[in-house]
Every structure is written in C-alpha cells, then in structure tokens.
Design goal:
The complex is a heterodimer of chains A (about 280) and B (about 300). Chain A has about 280 residues and is mostly helical. Chain A is built from 14 helices and no strands. Classes of the chains: A mainly alpha (about 280), B mainly alpha (about 300). Chain A: This is Carbohydrate ABC transporter permease.
C-alpha cells in the first residue's frame, strides 16, 4: 500500500470511530447514569471526567424500582415477557401454517386468498386502531392480556417472508412423505418445520422485539396499573412530578440491556430477516 | 382415471383453468384450508372488519364520552377541511418527513459505504451502528428527553463546556422538531444501513474493475456504478421511510406530547388525542382515513417515479 492509501484508511478509521462513539453515547450514558446517585446526576454540570463515569457507583436505583409497591417494575417486565412470548409462539404457529399452505399445497382459490392476505399490508395501523379498540371493548377484553395478544398473532409480513423461504423446499420430499402415508400435518412438523429453523428464528426474533417494543396499543387498551407493559410504564415514570432520573434510567437499562444481549447473540438472524425479505419488521 | 374424467368434464367450462383445478387432491385441499383458517380468521376479525368499520365510523358523529352516535354523512370530512389544528399537525408531519427522508437516506448510505469493505473489526462498527435499532422507541425517546433537558441534560452541559450556545430542544417551538428528528435518525439509520449494505453487496465487483480500467476514480465509480445500481434499494428505503415518517408518534408522545405550543403535534398524535383524549371516534377515524389516502397516494407516486427511472 502506498502512503496515500494508508492515509485514507487512517482517516476513515478515525471517522468511523467518532461516529461509533456518537452513536453509542446515549446508550452508554443511560447505563452509566443508572449507577449514579440522584445527587451525583445533577452535581456535575461542567466538562470533566466525572461527567462520564459514576463517581460513587450504586445499585440503589435498581433496588428502588423493584421495591416500589406503587410501581411494580418486576411485574411490568413479567407482563411484557408473557405477552411477547405468547404472541411469538402463537404467531410462529399460525403464520407458518398459512405460509406452508400458500407455498407448497395445491388448492382452489389460492391466488385469490393470497391477494386477500397481501392486500391487508396496505392498511395502516392508525386507521384500524380505533375500531379495534371499540371491538376489544365489546368483547369485554379491556385491561386483559388477550387484548394485547390475540389481535397481534397474525402477521402478513411474516407469512410473506416464510412463503419465500418454504418455496425452496422441494415438493418431492413432501410427496415422499405422502407416499409413506404421512398426513399433511405430520409432514408440516416432521419435514417442513425442521427445514425452516433459521427462518423461524428470524421471524420469532422480529416478532418478539416488536412485541417487547409495542407502545401505542397497550397504552390504549390497558389502563390498570399492574397489568401495564414495560414501555408504557417507563413513559409514565417520567410524567410524574419529582421524577428521579436515576430510577428512570435504571428502568430503561434493565428493560433494554437483556434485549441488546439477545440481539448480539442472534444478530445474524435479525440482519438476515431484513435483507431476506427486504421488508421492515 | 377418476382424475382424468374430471378433467374432461371440466374442459367444457374453461379449457386451461378447468384441467388444472380438476387435479386438486381432496385431502390436500382440506389440509390447506385448515392451515390457512386460523390466520384468515384473525385477519378478518382484527384487520378487515375494523377497516370496514373505520369507514362507517368516519361517517358518524361517534363520541364515546356522551355515548352517542348519529349519522353524519361527510360532515366529519368537511369539518376537517377547515380545521386549523388538523392541517397544522399534517404540516408538522410533512416537515418532519421532508427533513428525515433525504437526510436519513444519505446518512444510511454513507454508513453502508463506510462499513462495506471487510477488514478486521468492521463487524464491531456494523453492530454499533445498528444497535439503536434494537433500542425501543419508548426508551430511545426517554433517554433523549433527559439528554436534551435544558438545565441538567448532557447535551447542554457539553455545549456550554465547549463554549457553544445551548440548544433547548424541548421547550423552544422553533427547534423542538429538530430534536425529535435527531432522535429518530439515530434510531433508524442502522436499519437502512443494513438494507443499503445488502444492495451494495449485490453489485458485482467486475463492474468496479471495469470502471477502474476505464480510468474512473472513486467518485466517478460512485456516481456511474454505485448510484444507478442502487436505484431499487433506494426506492425501497425512500418509500418505507416516507410511510414511517408520516406516521411518527411515540417520540412525539414521550418527549414533547405535541408541544411546545403544538409545534411538534404530528398527524398521528392529533388522531390519538382526538380519539383517546376527546373520545371523538368518528372525527378521528375521518382524519385517519385522510392520512391513509395521503400515504397511499404518495407511495403510488413514488413507485411510479422510481419505476420509470429504472426503465429508462
């Protein structure tokens, strides 16, 4: 490499590092401040090393959010986890069954049904939110977990993604299964599902993250404090007067760091999901 | 044999289609409908039925507080046409979109170009740039709200420390939206970086080699090779960004609640307030339908523009 190239490379590395620091800063600041005392957070208002590191690290903020009976943070986490897990499991089942039928089975009205499914992608959530809310009220599901779960199970993006994946499975393998006397249900879970594990992990991860992040819908259908999900609970933390920044940041940290961890482990699948479907999660 | 005779019978009706539909296996058909049924049922109950009902509600005076509903014809729509707050919120959404679409697309493409080549450590940069995508919008908004805080926020402490003027993103109506824009770009740029990265990887190296042989420098290669071949990817990014930008809600709700002085009240925030604070379901549904129409129209126009570009 000549000098000019090395120079360019160094310049580029410096640029990338500066951007990386800027991008990571809000997350770092959140985690770092959650270990600070209330006093410390407001104390340092001049540039200096104390601004970027906790001087007397403490776990008090974490203790406080988990022991406050009026804002049961552990309960919010459990609520969200429960809803996200159930939606992910049910969604994988319902969506993969439909996708399998569309991708591999021959049946009348297939094209029409597929168009019906795909046409729902045009409908923005903002339009159906109001009647969905009224429907939940009429079903008597207000303040119930099923209001958060049942409407979220079917996900046409997910079906579409799985169809593309299932199409690659050769029909011959399925026919062979038929010859051996297996029913279609058996073929689905003995042959199709095992072959689609990477795609299912991708879809499961995306569904889980969507549910974990879900905000507007729980905000609308859950009003009972102890049934709330974590994202909405955090936003209500700060609308209270005399908020403690330390507590808010401990709450945001503990509800996002595990998710970041899962992502780091499974990022291959998540990125694959974006590039494979070319579609937003 | 049975199948064949069925096929012959069907030929009378329609030649091509008939033979094909004659060979459906009964068991297979039954299995297929059984497999599709749960998804279809949920789709009908929670998406298609609400969609129809939204249209009907938008033609009613439907208030949940008074519990009254009466037919209103097109009154809601007519009233919206002269509703200054509605138009202002629509304006804020368009302002937001007009800044975010070009800026975010350029930043995402820039990042993708930076992390495109494989060298040791590039994976770390990709991961870091992508990380904010995994942070939820509610949490990202909360963090930025505290960082932007006028008195104790990190941003102003640093700006002051560097001797720069302070930026008051949350209570100055002139710049409040910019604060939200920065937050949204931070959150979403990594997602579109990955999309661009996939697009860049689809461009064959041989094209760059050919351009290099022809004496094209890096800038020329970018303009002559990269940009034209990224057209489809760019179309996808721009269309998705537009749809998302016009529907921005969570950051607005958390950081400013539409304030100060309504300067950040976007259209979805307006719909939310109308429906769930004033409980005015009919009026809010009409506003949501107008938004739907606008988004659909813009998407169709964008698809046209990008398609003709690709063809010529």
């Amino acid at each position: 490499m000549d000098k000019r190239h090395t120079g360019l490379f160094v310049l580029r590395m410096v640029m990338m590092t500066v951007i990386a620091l800027l991008v990571i800063f809000p997350v770092y600041w959140m985690i770092m401040s959650s270990f600070r005392t209330q006093e410390e957070i407001f104390k340092y208002s001049k540039l200096g090393w104390e601004l970027f590191f906790p001087v007397q690290p403490t776990l008090d903020n974490y203790k406080a959010i988990f022991t406050d009976p009026s804002k049961p943070f552990g309960r919010y986490m459990a609520n969200t986890l429960f809803v996200a897990v159930v939606v992910t499991a049910a969604g994988l089942l319902v969506n993969s069954l439909a996708a399998f039928a569309f991708a591999k089975l021959r049946f009348p009205f297939k094209k029409v049904l597929l168009v019906v499914f795909l046409s729902s992608l045009v409908i923005p959530y903002e339009v159906i939110m109001i009647p969905q809310y009224l429907l939940i009220g009429e079903l008597g599901w207000m303040n119930m977990y099923k209001a958060l779960i049942v409407p979220q199970i079917v996900w046409v993006f997910g079906i579409f993604m799985l169809i593309q994946f299932f199409t690659d499975i050769p029909r011959d393998i399925l026919e062979a299964g038929r010859m051996d006397g297996a029913g279609w249900m058996r073929i689905y879970y003995k042959i199709v599902l095992p072959a689609a594990v990477p795609a299912l992990i991708t879809l499961g991860l995306m569904t889980f993250l969507n549910q974990w992040d879900s905000f507007l819908w729980p905000l609308v259908v859950i009003n009972e404090e102890k049934k709330q999900v974590v994202q909405v609970a955090i936003s209500s933390f700060q609308s209270l007067r005399n908020i403690s920044w330390g507590k808010v940041l401990a709450a945001t940290t503990i509800s996002s760091v595990p998710i970041l961890g899962i992502f780091l482990i499974l990022q291959k699948y998540y990125v694959q999901g974006i590039t494979m479907s070319g579609v937003k999660g | 044999m049975n199948l064949l005779s069925l096929g012959v019978l069907r030929k009378r009706g329609s030649f091509v289609k008939g033979f094909k539909s004659g060979v459906y296996d009964k068991q297979e058909t039954r299995a297929a409908f059984l497999f599709i049924m749960p998804a279809l049922l949920l789709l009908v109950v929670f998406i298609f039925y609400p969609m129809t009902r939204a249209l009907l509600i938008s033609l009613e005076n439907y208030n949940l507080i008074s519990g009254s509903s009466s037919p209103a014809g097109l009154d809601n729509y007519k009233q919206l046409m002269s509703d200054g707050v509605f138009w202002a919120s629509l304006g804020h959404s368009f302002y937001f979109a007009a800044v975010v679409i070009p800026l975010q697309t350029m930043i995402a493409l820039g990042l993708a170009l930076l992390v495109r080549r494989t060298f040791r450590g590039v994976g770390i940069f990709r991961t870091v740039y992508f990380l904010p995508v995994v942070v939820s919008f509610a949490i990202a908004s909360t963090i930025f709200k505290l960082i932007y805080n006028k008195d104790y926020g990190m941003l102003n402490v640093i700006l002051k420390g560097l001797g720069l003027p302070v930026a008051d993103f949350l209570s100055n109506p002139d710049i409040a939206m910019i604060g939200i824009i920065i937050l949204c770009i931070w959150k979403a740029m990594g997602f579109f970086m990955i999309v661009f990265l996939a697009g860049l990887n689809n461009i064959p190296d041989s094209l760059y080699e050919a351009a290099h042989v022809d004496g094209a420098g890096p800038v020329q290669q970018f303009i002559r090779v990269t940009l034209p071949l990224l057209k489809r990817t760019t179309a996808f990014v721009v269309i998705i960004t537009t749809m998302d930008a016009l529907k921005i809600f969570v950051p607005v709700y958390i950081t400013t609640s539409g304030g100060p002085a309504q300067s950040t009240s976007t259209i979805v925030h307006y719909i939310y307030e109308t429906a769930f604070k004033q409980m005015n379901m009919g009026y809010a549904s009409a506003a949501a339908f107008i938004l739907f129409g606008i988004v659909l129209l813009i998407s169709v126009v964008q698809l046209r523009i990008f398609r003709t570009d690709v063809e010529y």
